[in-house]
Amino acid sequence: MDTLSYKTVFPNEQQCQREWVVIDATDQVLGRLCSAVALILRGKNKPDYSPFVECGDNVIIINADKVRLTGNKWTDREYLSYTGYPGGQRVSTPELLQQKSFNKHLKPGYNPLFIKVMKGMLPKNRLGRKIIGNMHVYNGPEHPHEAQNPKVIDINTIK
Length: 159
Fold this sequence. Notes:
- By secondary structure, the protein is α/β, with parallel strands linked by helices.
- The protein is built from five helices and six strands, in the order βαβαββαααββ.
- Helix content is 24%, strand content 15%.
- The chain has a four-stranded parallel sheet with strand order 5-2-1-6, covered by helices on one side. A two-stranded antiparallel sheet has the order 3-4.
- The N and C termini lie far apart (39 Å).
């Protein structure tokens, strides 16, 4: 019996086939949408998934301003952050973070609400910080990534 034939093969970044994907967030629940996007960003929906390699797709989320939250979470949920100084604890709500996404001084494709939610669903290491850069969120139906020929995915079909 040849034991070398049973060797596990791990893909590296050059062997991974990375694509661009467009997801429409109209009337989607924020947490459920982001959990499916986290699956795509990490590459867990691919057969050659490896936990320590960036093999996920680039995700473009359009119509992010039409995302839903159930109940009174727009105003009642609180996200805490700390500046590091005494008395520097800051409180923000999803409604406030969504309003910040319309700020013209933010770089295009950056949405503070989606970044806050997605950071909790990705690994807390160098790979997670690198993966979050592959997500581009836009409030309207247009995006500047047409040159990458992204394919449109219905998020409701992803398990």
